Amino acid sequence: AQRVTQPEKLLSVFKGAPVELKCNYSYSGSPELFWYVQYSRQRLQLLLRHISRESIKGFTADLNKGETSFHLKKPFAQEEDSAMYYCALKAQGPLSSGSARQLTFGSGTQLTVLP
Amino acid sequence: DTEVTQTPKHLVMGMTNKKSLKCEQHMGHRAMYWYKQKAKKPPELMFVYSYEKLSINESVPSRFSPECPNSSLLNLHLHALQPEDSALYLCASSQGVNYGYTFGSGTRLTVV
Fold this sequence. Notes:
- The complex is a heterodimer of chains A (about 120) and B (about 110).
- Helix content of chain A is about 0%, strand content about 40%.
- Chain A is mainly beta.
- Chain A is globular and about 40 Å long.
- The termini of chain A are far apart.
- Chain B has no helices and 11 strands.
- The radius of gyration of chain B is 13 Å and the shape is globular.
């Protein structure tokens, strides 16, 4: 079974400070990991996926298989980054599911960037 | 069209009512999902459809009945719900193995 752990429910940083949102996972297979963001009163949006190794809105995340982590980082936080962030793992489903793979979410970290 | 559209946005229903939630996407995604999200909690998977066939049912009570009439539509039929079923119901779709989900904005359901 897969598990995603986000140890911090709440995280506050000042504008311009670096921010790191922690995510650890437990999964026996080869993981596919994602970060989702949910701004106040908006839909859940995909922020990053590990396989693309991209930087979105200044955020990056590196998969560390040795430490089973996928921490989200940004060198200089902005007030508009304030939101709920979810780390998620896509598991290998039954063969019948094809590309429909179950996405399991961590409990989320509420990031507040203070002025 | 790069969105997942859910209707209605809000729904209030009594415990004896029958209602349906609708979800639509025109991105050609062949996997669609229903999630339930309580306030300040992560989404919890309910159902997974792959090529219009139900492939995962996460032990959801039978008062929730999913339906996938075609590759663009996903319904969730509700009957005899309980107040604890009040939540945000999210629909999502995905393109393939290495892609994330695209989520709809959800239906905020209140059971009275």
